[in-house]
Protein: ESCRT-II complex subunit VPS25
Amino acid sequence: MNNTGGFQFPDFYHFPPFFTIQPVLITREKQLAQWRELILKYHTDLRIKTLVIHECPLWKNASIDRELDRDEINLVMNDFVKSGHGEWEDPEIRTRCRILWRRPEQLASDIYEWAAANGYINSVCTIYELHSGEDVNGMSFQGADEQLLRRALGILENQGKCAIFKGETSDEDGLKFF
Structure:
C-alpha cells in the first residue's frame, strides 16, 4: 500500500493542513486543485491507469502522521472526476477510477500531431503500434488505457483525420491518418 515507486512528492504533501479539508471555500478550492494535481501527476508519472480507492498510497502521509478519512477521500475523488481527469469504472460503488492522463480531446490532438510529425499521414499503423510501438516512446498516449485511446481516435475519425478498420484482434485494428 505504501509503494510510491520513487515518486517525488510536492512540498504541499508534507504540510499537515493539506490532509484536512479546509472549511473556507476559496482555500478548499485551492486545496482540491492541489489534490487533482497530485493524483494526476502520481498516476501519470508512474503510468498507473486506475486508482483503486482502498489501495491508493496518496491518502496517508506517515512521515507527518496524517491521512484523509473516507468522507474526505470521497470529496477529493468526486472533485477529481468532476474536473474531467477521471471516470468511475464502477459508478454505483465508486471504488475504481480510470485516470485520464490527458482528456480525450487533448489525446486526440497529441496523436494527430505525432502522426503528422512522424510521416503517418496517408499511412497505416495498428492500435498496438500507437499504444506500445517504438515510435511512441515518451508520447502522452504511450501505454494509455485502450478505451481512452479509442475515444481519442473516435474524435479524430469524427473530424475526418483518420479512419479505423478492424483487424483480427483489437491490437491489430488499423488506422489511416489523413
